[in-house]
């Protein structure tokens, strides 16, 4: 990369970080959430942001909402849209001239950052694999994957619940959907953690280089995979997409690479965190665990409450595509509004006594953890099936599972979840907390 450009990006990042740090020192809740001090418990800061108004304008120019009704309305409002992170962050991932023709970033160039009608066309292409009937057919495979992961860990007295179970299951589920061999899964885990780590923004040159490397590797891997499957007779998702009309042109192949890359990363980086947060909750709450063991069908609403109280995606961003008034605030065209999903999910006007864990709430599925509107998570059904099967299976197989040390959280603000949860598997319950 041009050293002058590298220096300019480095200085811009440094300046932004200094502003955020300075504001955080004054107790500003937005800067606190953007900084690292709130990682242990960001939720009180979302409350403080909601207390400033249903929609508030922050000094750095962003609008925010932590209100459930407003957040949901914004996500469903066609006057709001999305745009690639690079266009509003002022920083990029080390793109070289010409990379725009060579590389495909699965988050920045996929449906996640596209508005209708382009978004609708591509989403329709993959939605057949996520319909209720397709998921019903796929569910036995999910159960088999969970059972095999449990076989591997249940023979051991101690293990890391995140690395050896919560991460393994969703990666294998998405690999099964793509019909990709287990040997590729270590790379997937690395790619996923690099890309989701940068959802907070890219802070260092080292991070930029890591993203560039990851995007290069993913583009090459997925382009080769599509080329190989195009000539075969496979009936898996990738083979069918490769043989579709898009597979015939290089632009079409780029669109497929972005779509499959997004499914790959979005498909496991989020579900891991629900399984981790859910297991933590169930290890600490004996009553809840007993209820799950007595009534295995409680797994589904338990997953919903985990998603509401510990959403793996804590916030998302929308851009006003035209002048719009939201909750009394006039937003100009181009204004950026942060929907604090994690704040909206604890809005007492939607969820009375919001911090109480209650899988029997009448509106238990009404959280915004899967977003809402046109970008509503395509994999929500699959994530629900996977997380419920994993949590139910885990405690049925190891009812005495307990923490063997403190859980640690990922150092990311947009994606929330544990990076490690040491556990012990004995006949009796052990809980060290932390
Ligand atoms: C618990 C697990 C999951 C959570 C919390 C989650 C969360 C989300 C959220 C919040 C969005 C929308 C972001 C926005 O509105 O800006 C989203 C979109 C998406 N998710 Fe998920 N997700 C999960 C699992 C999955 C799985 C398993 C897959 C696929 C196998 C998947 C695929 C997608 C795709 C393709 C989109 C883009 C949809 C669009 O833009 O139209 N997700 N997800």
UniProtKB/TrEMBL annotation:
CDD domains recorded: CYP164-like
Record-given protein name: Cytochrome P450
Keywords associated with the record: Heme, Iron, Metal-binding, Monooxygenase, Oxidoreductase
Family (UniProt): Belongs to the cytochrome P450 family.
Gene3D superfamilies: Cytochrome P450 (1.10.630.10)
InterPro entries: Cyt_P450, Cyt_P450_B, Cyt_P450_CS, Cyt_P450_sf
Annotated source species: Kutzneria viridogrisea
Domain of life: Bacteria
PANTHER family xrefs: BIOTIN BIOSYNTHESIS CYTOCHROME P450, P450, PUTATIVE (EUROFUNG)-RELATED
């Amino acid at each position: 990369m041009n050293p002058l450009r590298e220096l300019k990006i480095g200085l811009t990042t440094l300046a932004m970080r200094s502003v955020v740090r300075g504001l955080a020192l004054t107790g500003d809740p937005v800067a606190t959430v953007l900084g690292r001090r709130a990682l242990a418990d960001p939720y009180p800061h979302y409350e403080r942001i909601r207390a400033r108004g249903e929609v508030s304008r922050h000094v750095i120019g962003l609008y925010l909402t932590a209100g459930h009704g407003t957040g949901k309305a914004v996500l469903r409002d066609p006057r709001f849209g999305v745009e690639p992170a690079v266009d509003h962050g002022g920083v990029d991932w080390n793109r070289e001239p010409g990379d725009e023709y060579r590389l495909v970033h699965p988050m920045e160039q996929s449906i996640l950052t596209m508005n209708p009608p382009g978004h609708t066309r591509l989403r329709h292409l993959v939605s057949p694999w996520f319909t209720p009937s397709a998921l019903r057919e796929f569910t036995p495979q999910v159960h088999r994957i969970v059972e095999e992961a449990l076989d591997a860990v249940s023979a051991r007295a101690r293990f890391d619940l995140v690395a050896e179970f919560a991460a393994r299951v969703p990666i294998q589920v998405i690999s099964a959907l793509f019909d990709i061999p287990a040997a590729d899964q270590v790379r997937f885990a690395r790619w996923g953690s690099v890309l989701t780590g940068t959802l907070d923004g890219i802070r260092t040159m080292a991070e930029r280089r890591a993203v560039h490397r990851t995007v290069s590797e993913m583009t090459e891997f997925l382009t080769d995979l599509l080329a190989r499957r195009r000539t075969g007779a496979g009936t898996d998702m990738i083979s069918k997409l490769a043989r579709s009309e898009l597979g015939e042109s290089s632009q079409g192949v780029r669109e497929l690479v972005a779509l499959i890359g997004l499914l790959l990363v979005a498909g496991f980086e989020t579900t891991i965190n629900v399984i981790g947060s859910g297991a933590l909750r169930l290890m600490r709450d004996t009553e809840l665990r007993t209820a799950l063991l007595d009534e295995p069908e409680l797994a589904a609403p338990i997953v919903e409450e985990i998603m509401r109280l510990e959403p793996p995606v804590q916030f998302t961003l929308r851009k006003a595509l035209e002048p719009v008034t939201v909750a009394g605030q006039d937003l100009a065209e181009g204004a950026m509004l942060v929907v604090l999903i994690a704040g909206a999910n604890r809005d007492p006007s939607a969820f009375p006594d919001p911090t109480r864990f209650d899988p029997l709430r009448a509106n238990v599925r009404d959280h915004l953890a899967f977003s809402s509107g046109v970008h509503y998570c395509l994999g929500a059904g699959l994530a629900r099936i996977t997380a419920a099967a994993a949590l139910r299976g885990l405690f049925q197989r190891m009812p005495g599972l307990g923490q063997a040390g403190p859980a640690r959280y990922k150092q990311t603000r947009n994606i929330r979840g544990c990076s490690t949860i040491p556990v012990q598997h004995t006949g009796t319950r052990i809980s060290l907390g932390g």
